Amino acid sequence: MPDWLVLVLAMLAAVAVVVIITLVRHKRAAEDEDPSETPDVIEYMTMWIGVIYAIVLGLAVAGVWEARSAAQDHVQAEAQALHEIYERVRVYPPDTRDRIRADVDAYVTQVVEKEWKEMADHGRLSAQGAELLAQIRQDVTDYQPKTDFQAQAYQPLVDQVAALDQARSARADSTGATMPSVVWVGLLTGAAVTIGMVFALQIRRTRRELILAGLFSATIAFMLFLIWDFDEPYSRGITATAQPFLNLFPHLKG
Predict the structure, then answer these.
(1) CB 164 within 8 A of CB 78
(2) Are residues 233 and 55 in contact, defined by beta-carbon separation less than 8 angstroms?
(3) Interval 190-197 mean pLDDT
């Protein structure tokens, strides 16, 4: 199901629930009930509950967006480390240089064409990617420099392999949901309480009040959807992409 359809259905469901409850409550209300007699303390509590929940929603949105941005940064760091390895081995003998570059190309191809789908579908990295990374590390660290120029390039290459491993580990840690289950329980419970407090104000069945109550509930539904959509940086919403690999290795496109 497309994300936009999930959003539309969630917002319509929230509006429908508010309207139905309002109509049922109005039908069952006593004839002498006066909505204007709502105690001031209820209005005060409703206001503060709404403010507090708005702050919580804002922090949640900021958290999942930051996690998404961090996930993209991990991808960029990984691609940059591979690019540095690819370029720095030019000082090595042709056979060693070509072998390491072939390993880098194989790793990038594996990540872009296979591992990315594995992350999106199953929330994990592929074993083949780890094997290809181990091969790059072995080829780089096992080479014995034969000139001073090669010796000067050796340690930076080892450092880039370490940076590559670190970026891959960070990407693995970013795979999957960002928000813990207990936070989702709090967000959903808060939404129910916040919307429920609207009925404590004894809203009437006028068009204006129904529209405002519906928009209020639809807004909360939209914010919850936004958090859910950004919750998994590699599989939902505006996801982190593998574009940095393609940008730095244009010869592998297509």
Answers:
(1) yes
(2) no
(3) 85
Rounded to a whole number of angstroms, the distance between the first and last alpha carbons of the chain is 28
In whole angstroms, give the CA distance from residue 208 to residue 151: 77
Question: How far is it, in rounded angstroms, from Cα 155 to Cα 158?
Answer: 5
- Tell me the per-residue pLDDT of 93-105, one tens digit each, with 9 for 90 and over: 999 999 999 999 9
The pLDDT value recorded for residue 213 is 80
Taking the C-alpha atoms of residue 53 and residue 57, their distance in angstroms, rounded to an integer, is 6
pLDDT band at residue 74, thresholds of 50, 70 and 90? very high
Dist CA 184 CA 49 (whole Å): 17
Structure tokens at 149: 């120029």
Contact indicator for 46, 212 with CB cutoff of 8 Å: no
Could you report the per-residue pLDDT of 107-145, keeping only the tens digit for each? 999 999 999 988 888 888 989 999 999 999 999 999 898
Structure tokens at 156: 């930076």
Pick from 76, 73, 82: which is nearest to 106 by CA?
82
Residue type, 166: Q
CA 202/CA 219 separation, integer angstroms? 20
Amino acid in position 170? A
Listed residue (41, 32, 75, 77) closest to 233, CA to CA? 75
